[in-house]
Design brief:
The chain contains 3 helices and no strands. The protein is mainly α.
């Protein structure tokens, strides 16, 4: 993949990764190369799945602070 982001794009990508915001474009590129016969989630589906994976615990998917 060519470097078309520039310094600002890379800074934004790095900042998002630091706070845990996943990169949808990287996901789509990976799916198209690695799993070309499988469907690609929409941005909304991808975001929800990543949020659930990060903040859900156990099969119930409930967040517990205590």
């Amino acid at each position: 993949m060519p470097d078309t982001l520039g310094i600002t794009g890379w800074a934004v990508r790095a900042a998002r990764l630091m706070v845990g915001v996943p990169d949808y474009d990287t996901y789509v590129a990976h799916r198209r190369v690695t799993h070309p016969d499988e469907a690609v989630m929409t941005y909304e589906e991808f975001f929800r799945e990543r949020q659930d994976a990060r903040y859900s615990f156990g099969k119930g998917g409930r967040f517990r602070c205590c």
